[in-house]
Amino acid sequence: MGQQKVAIVIAGGSGMGAAAARQLHQAGFAVGILSSSGKGEALAKELGGVGVTGSNQNVADMQKLVDAVMQRFGRIDVLVNGAGHGPKGDLLAISDEDWIKGLEVYFLNVVRATRLVAPIMQAQGGGAIINISSAWAFEPAALFPTSAMARSGLAAFTKIFCDEYGKHNIRMNNVLPGWIDSLPKKDERQAAVPLQRYGTADEIGATVAFLASEGAAYITGQNIKVDGGLMRHI
Predict the structure, then answer these.
(1) 32: closest CA among 23, 19, 45?
(2) Under a CB-based contact definition with an 8 Å cutoff, are residues 227 and 135 in contact?
(3) Do the Cβ atoms of 80 and 12 come closer than 8 Å?
(4) What does residue 123 show for φ and ψ, rounded to 5 degrees?
């Protein structure tokens, strides 16, 4: 039997990140979790992994998790990048500071973690990076302006990363959730979804676990909508 594979989940304390951590654990991965609330540290303990309480906007906090995971398990096969919630507001009323905050929350979270983990994956012969993005990345909505701005940029970053790191057998894909049950439910939003329901955090977690698996070994550079058919573009 080979060495156990290891996944780290950034922003994995609750919601989709926590669901991803649980599903990866069920798939046989050892897990490391970073979360600002302390819930990630508790979940990691429950799953027999490594937890750090800290922010994905702080390189030192992420380095602490990477170091702790490497010390305990000696490898990192999968990186899952979740995100918090960035600023919203009327388009032209959003301040420069809030646009920059959106980049911090929805884009630089991925860049920072990838800088830390990609060299480890390269040295061990491969790995998979999965970013939790948003279904609205390509059909921007006034509801989520800073998210749409940053996550369309994340799609470009992902494509360039795959061009450069594919030869090292490192894959990167984005999962694009629609209305998920970790958000407050609104009837009119549910009615707009062809499947007539909100998705579950576990369904996002299952998609993440698939993209981390050998079954997805030839999938890279993709933006995979998990939105019940909500988005219209082909």
Answers:
(1) 45
(2) yes
(3) yes
(4) -65, -30
Please list, in sequence order, all residues whose beta carbon lies within 8 angstroms of the beta carbon of residue 68, skipping any fewer than 6 positions away: 32, 50, 52
Burial of 139 (0-12, 13-18, 19+ CB in 10 A): middle
Q: Which two tokens stand for residue 11?
A: 């922003």
Radius of gyration of the chain (CA): 17
CB 228 within 8 A of CB 23: no
Per-block average pLDDT, block size 10, for the chain (234 residues)?
87 96 98 96 98 96 98 98 95 98 97 98 98 97 96 98 98 98 92 97 98 98 98 93
Distance CA 147, CA 136 (A): 8
